[in-house]
Each structure stands twice: as C-alpha cells, then as structure tokens.
Amino acid sequence: MWKRKHKHDEDDARVRPSSRLALFQKKAGADFTAQKKLAIMGAMLLLILSLFLTIAALKNDVQTQSVGPTQTALPMTLQVAARNAIVIDAKTGQVLGEKGADKQIGIASQSKMLTAYGILQGIKKKRFTWDSLVTITQQSDWSQKDTATFSHLEISAGQKIAVKELFVAMFTSSANDAALALADFAKEQNQTQQQALEGWAKDLKLTGSKWYNAAGQVNKDAFDYQVKNADPDAENTASVKQLAILAYQIIREDPNIRSYYEKRGLVYHPSANETKIKLTEGAKFDQEIKAKLSNSKNLIFEGLKTGSTPASGGALTGLIRDQSGHEFITVVSGAGRYTDQVQRYQNTIDVVNQVLDHYTPVTYQKGQAVTKNQFKNKNLAGGHQNLVIGQSRTFWLTKGQTAVGYQRPSRLQSTVTKKGATVLTVQPTLKAKFLPEVSAKEQTLQLVNQQTYRLGHWWQKIYHWLKFW
C-alpha cells in the first residue's frame, strides 16, 4: 500500500508543473487584458483631452459677430432750385444729399476758403502764428479801388496787420486785399500765388479744380495778380463737393470760425494807433435778408462764405445748425441771379429741410454702454471687461430706422486695463457715403474701458482658458 501511495504521490508531483503553467498563463492573460484596457482607456483619455483642448482653443479664438441691424443711408437726391448743391454732417463728414455735386463751376469769393486752409496749415506747422504781422504790399493794396465792385479794407501798402485780423476779414467781409495779402504771406518764397493755391488744392486732392488768385476774382480783375499766360476771363473753379471738403477741413482746424458770423462789426488795426470798423456779412444778413426767408424749422446760419459769378449765379457755402444742435455744411450754386442775395440763403434752408425730413439721427453718446458691452477676456482677473462708447458719434439713417449695427469680437485678448483707454474700435454696419477726407477710423465707434481692471495671475488665465473663455 505504501508503494501505491507513493506512486500516487509521484503522479501528483508530475501534474503540479502543468498546473502552475496554466495558472501562470491565466494570470499573464489577465495582466495583458488589464494592460490592454489601461492602454485603451489612456488612449481614450488622451483623445478626449486633445478634443477638449482643441475645442478650448477654438472657443478662445477671437471671433467677430454682428450686433444689431445693417442699414443703408446713401445720399438723397436734393430737389432744389439751385443747379448744384450738397449737404453733409459737419462733424462726421457723412454726405446726406447731392445735386450735381461733382460739376466744376466758378466759385468766386468762396476761393478764399483755400487761402484760409493755407493759413491754417502754416499755423499748424508753426511757420507763423495768429499774431504774426503781415505787411501789405503794393500788389495787395486795394485801398483805391471801388468798394461797390471790389470788397476791401481801408489798408495801404507798408501797413502791418495781424494774421488773425486779416483771416477774420476774409470771412466776415470777404475782403479781397486780406485774402491776397495772406496768400502771399503763407506761400513759399520761391512760389507764385497761383502755385501756392494749386499746391494747397493738391494737398486736399481737389482734382480738376482750377486756381488763379486767392481772392477769387476773374483773372482780368485781379490786377497785379493777373496770370499773364491765362485767359483774361479765366476764373477759379471747383465742385460743390470740393467746397464742402474745404469747409470741413477749415472747421476742424479752426472751430472758432463758428463765432465769426456773430460779429456785427469787423474791428481791425491798420496801424498801432488806428482802429477801423467795417460792417460784416452777418450784420447784412440780419438787417437785409433774414426777414425775407421762409424758415419753418428755425435753422441758424453760422457762416461760412458767399460767392457768385454771372455764369454760376448766387452761391453760398454755409454752416447751418438745427434746433437739436446738429450742424451741417451746405453748398449751393446757381441759386438765382448772381446779384440776388436772398435765394442762396433760401435754397440753403430748403436743402437742409429736405435732409431733416428724410433722415433720422442716431447718436452714440460718449460713455454710453453698447449692446452686449460685457466682453470675455481671459487675461483679466475677473475674466470679463465692460466697454462703453469712447467718443460721441452720430449716423444719419433714413426715416423709420432707429438703430445701426456694428461688428464686434466675441471675446478680447487685450491687456489694456486703464479706465477710459481705447480697447478696440468697431465698424458700424452702415452703407453710407462720407467725404473722401474722412478716414475709416473716423467712421468707427471707439470702445473704451468702463473702469480700471486688474490683470490675472497665470493660473487665472489658464483657468479662464480652460472654461472655454
């Protein structure tokens, strides 16, 4: 029995290695399955993480979205007796109405606005100041000429008058001698007056305009300033749009020009101990013209410059303010006979009335919160940034439209944190026409910080980013 039992034990011993292998293989298989599962789970987690980070990157990208309606407000066609006319917003340069606005026409004394532009550029470049003295030359001395035909001051060769006094005289009394003396003073030493005028016109891209003298006289009536190689009947020409461009630039450079029409007497000093007073165009308007006008909307005339020729008829470049404080630059030409003083003003009223009946002003006020003014910004401690309008801006829309949209980003990457600092500009979705001198930037809305913000720590930036900021 013992031997049999021993044999059985031997049989058991022979079975055990095989069982161990089976157990080992079973265990190895289980380990491999676990590793495979871990690998698959790891791959899935990596895929999910990659997808998460990809979505986060896309979500954090600065994207543009449209807020509010897209509007169209192209210039209306003005129905007015004047042959040529234009109306623009004096502050934004938006063109509101036109009639024959690009036709070249004689502009007479409105030419003095180009001389004004030359003076303003000289002051801007610090070549001289408002107090600089201008010597009246033999050429610019018109004291002996008929005042009924040629408007001028009582100044003579050799006298010295301040730039400011002559400048105001051009606008308030249309003084020819003042314009001629100023143009000579402002031009480069090696230039003729005509060359200086043409240079200033080129600066403003007044393509196609023609210039002979600073006063706007017909060539043969410019006396010592007659251009010898030109037709005696040649005259300065420009379009009403180009005159509007001139007026727009002058008002921007010299806002005080708004007060000139309030002057009832022009005071000037031909010499240190001499003071003279001359009736202004503003005074003549009040005394002889204002009561004859039909002005139901009570528009206010603030200037700028009259001018007329037998061929072009009565003309006026005006600065007009309505009862709501909106200002318009207007130009009318061919408004009645050139000797008529009333029609140019009445036609000016008529075109502004048409614009006010056709358009509605929509104004974004400085400090006003824009639609959806809270922007996401991962760079800030709080993750948000509130922006408001930085500069008041008015857009004219056709009647019935009460708002204009704009393009804005869905989130910011800005690190501008100071209160009132410009963070970005947005482009209104408005199809309109502006003067060519109005830059794209001037047609946009500036958005500034409503308050001062604090930049976030690195971990805050990561946190905001991972929240799909």
From TrEMBL:
Principal EC category: hydrolase
Entry annotated with the keyword Transmembrane: yes
GO MF, one example: serine-type D-Ala-D-Ala carboxypeptidase activity
Record-linked SUPFAM superfamilies: beta-lactamase/transpeptidase-like
Transmembrane segments: 38-58
Presence of keyword Transport: no
Pfam families associated with the record: Peptidase_S11 (PF00768)
InterPro entries: Beta-lactam/transpept-like, Peptidase_S11, Peptidase_S11_N
EC number: 3.4.16.4
UniProtKB keywords: Carboxypeptidase, Cell shape, Cell wall biogenesis/degradation, Hydrolase, Membrane, Peptidoglycan synthesis, Protease, Signal, Transmembrane, Transmembrane helix
Domain Peptidase S11 D-alanyl-D-alanine carboxypeptidase A N-terminal positions: 78-335
Family: Belongs to the peptidase S11 family.
Name by which UniProt lists this protein: D-alanyl-D-alanine carboxypeptidase (DacC)
Organism: Fructobacillus tropaeoli
